[in-house]
Structure formats: C-alpha cells, structure tokens
Amino acid sequence: MKLYVAKTSPYARKVLALAMEKQALDRLQVVTIDPWSDPADLLSAIPSGKVPALVTDEGWCLGESWAIADYLDNILPGRRLLPDAGPDRWRSLRLSALAQGLLDAAFSAVVERRRPLGEQSPGWVDRQIAAIARSLPAMETAVPDLYADNAGLGALSVACALDYLDLRHGDLDWRTDHPDLANWLAGIIDRPSLRATDPR
User: What CATH number does residue 102 fall under?
Assistant: First the structure.
C-alpha cells in the first residue's frame, strides 16, 4: 500500500501514528510530498489532491484521515485502536470528532493567514480561533475519556490536534485554562508513535 503524506500535516500524522501503534508501518510505502505543488501522482490517485491519501493493494484510493485510519485499523495486524462496537467505540469516535473539529479550524486559520495580505479575511480567521476556543473546554471535560481510550484512535487524534496547535498557533496559551488536558498531553506525547511523527 502507498500512503501519501505531507511532513507537517496533522491529518497524515494521525494515520502514521496509528500504523506505528499497530507495529505495521512496514506494510506501507510512505511517500512524502508537497500537496500544494499539485504533484501529478497524487492528483492521479485522488482528485481532491489532499493528504493523507492511501492507495490500497487492490489499486483503489482512500482519502480523508478518518476513513484511512478506520480501513488500516481493520486490515493491519495488532490491537484495534477503534473498537468494533458499543460504548468504547462511541467514546473513541466522539474524541476523534472533537479533534477533527479543532484541527479543521486550526488548519483553516493557517491557510487563510498564508494568503496575500490584501486577500485575507480577518473575520474568517477570528471564526476559526473561536471554534478552537470552544473545542478546548470540551476536550478538558473529556480528559477521563482520553485516559480510558488508552492511546486509541480518539486519543491519538486529540494528541495530534493539540500538538498542531503548539506548532502553528503557539500564541494560544491553551494550557493555562485547561490544566488537565495539558497534563494528559504531556503524558501521551512521549509515546514512540508520536515522537517519531513529530514534524518539527
């Protein structure tokens, strides 16, 4: 299988971390690219040109990190990071959704700020920062679930999202008002799967 990633993509990092947690990274041919340059092989694999993108052994392509993670979790050996059913599954999916919402807002703000100054929308950036600010208290209250998820897909997703905040939005002092979340991140971020995928 071929997995297209970008070095600083938090979405790709989540997928790579999942493969490492399952000790199955060697099953993937990881191709690091710059999606902003519209590489032909990426565009031929997935029309959106977004990473991560997975080309399966059967030759078809999956996009979107949540879909790729679910697929790999099902076919790769090792422990399941997204439970099959029941309360544990819903907990992990809820955490993943919280992380996705925060990541989408954080990434959107970064992209907007990279536009030429006269084309930027400060109102749009403010809207994304407000979404981040609303997401963090929800994550703080979910800290018991993060521990219970035991480095599952939900917890890995939240860790990647928070670390992306530190990477791209270092001016946001989110730890002061969310100490339990900060303590949880300090504990999980040293896992080998997250250390190895740190884009810094």
Answer: 1.20.1050.10
Do 100 and 166 fall into the same domain?
yes
Looking at every residue in the chain, the average pLDDT score rounds to 96
Q: Which of 54, 92, 72, 88 is nearest to 17 (CA)?
A: 72
C-beta separation of 14 from 160 below 8 A: yes
Among the residues of 4-49, which ranges form H helices? 10-21, 40-45
Q: In what order do the strands lie in the sheet with 29-32?
A: 29-32, 2-5, 53-55, 61-63
pLDDT in tens, 113-163: 999 999 999 999 999 999 999 999 999 999 999 999 999 999 999 999 999
Cα 6 → chain centroid: 12
Question: Both 24 and 59 in a single domain?
Answer: yes
